[in-house]
Amino acid sequence: MKKIICTVTNDLSYDQRMSRICSSLAQQGYHVVLVGRKLSHSDPLEQHPFKQKRLACFFTKGPLFYAEYNLRLFFWLLFQKADCICAIDLDTILPCLIASKLKGTKRVYDAHELFCEMKEVVTRPSRYKLWKRIERFAVPKFKHGYTVCKPIAEEFQKMYGVNYAVVRNVPVKREKLKGLGHREGSEQPSTLNLSTEALAKADLKPSTFFLYQGAVNEGRSFETLIPAMKKLKMPLHIYGDGNFLEQTKSLIEKNHLQETVLLKGKLHPQELKEVTSSAYAGITLFENNGLSNYLSLANRFFDYIQAGIPQICVSYPAYKEINQQFDIAFLIPDTTEQSIADGLNLLLHDTVLYKRLQSNCLKAREILNWQEEEKILISFYKQLLG
Fold first, then answer.
1. Taking residues 26-52, what's their average pLDDT?
2. What domains are there in the chain, each with its CATH number?
3. Could you tell me if 194 and 201 are in contact, meaning their C-beta atoms sit under 8 angstroms apart?
4. Quick one: CA dihedral 43, 48, 53, 55, positive or negative?
5. Residue 270: HSE in the Cβ half-sphere, 13 Å Cα cutoff
6. Considering the entire predicted model, what is its pTM?
């Protein structure tokens, strides 16, 4: 049985993407181990068809954390038998590179994003210089890899001459959906054959909140999203946490929106799925202040589609390409306060548009799901490992 080790810097509990990837590989007969870190408040690990390992660190953030975690990961990898070591993003690439070289093991780079072009990196010159140096040194040595969308794959090819596959972050298809006015446990596929006109007449009464789910990080447009909510008559629920959470709380207080914008914290993936399918519409926004944001293809974009709810989304290349094919979102030209408010108000008041997008989401979820996408991942590893 071929063994694959995947490495991340999170604590594993909320990583839906790696849970999907590792589960698919384990179900194909590979022995898969997912390695992350252990925090004092980490939840107990859930059962999965793959093994999980957490490494405890004294430091929990900043340069000292990355240095300590990379050292601990390197020495742990050094004493593990493996046929393939997979580095998930740039923050674990060095120990994976060195260990794979010393052990003569195949290696894979799984690039969730253009790490160096994230706002929290690209806007800090010293941080950018360090990570870019690591990227230039390490990525060309990973001849095998995959990323989340075609624009990012093309950028890696342009920068480093590597030809990476594309495995999108689409969720597992759910057979039943709650929300959307359906009785609990009702079968969702019954709506898939409805025309837009019939769907508009159906008794589908969405819930009464807009939803942002995912990391509350820099570059996610909270500086303009929060004040835009003053122009809306529907509340916003934010599920997640991140490095911009305290600033988001301040923005809510500054704009006197404590009753309108609610910070709900993180939920376990299964709970979040139920919340998502009960929302009125989703929000996918990234500031255009780094190539990673501009070329992004966020998990939440597909999560909203799978939940059967429309969304507003900024018109960047990867989102625009998918929306031209499926027409599941209202694309806004930029992330200004006015554009966000106009987009959300349009979804709120244009019933014909809303029902058309909703109907298209219910159709697109039959194609944009992990059961289809995992075929690319499985083929990649079969070619690499047999």
1. 94
2. 3-170+370-385 (3.40.50.2000), 188-364 (3.40.50.2000)
3. no
4. negative
5. 2
6. 0.85
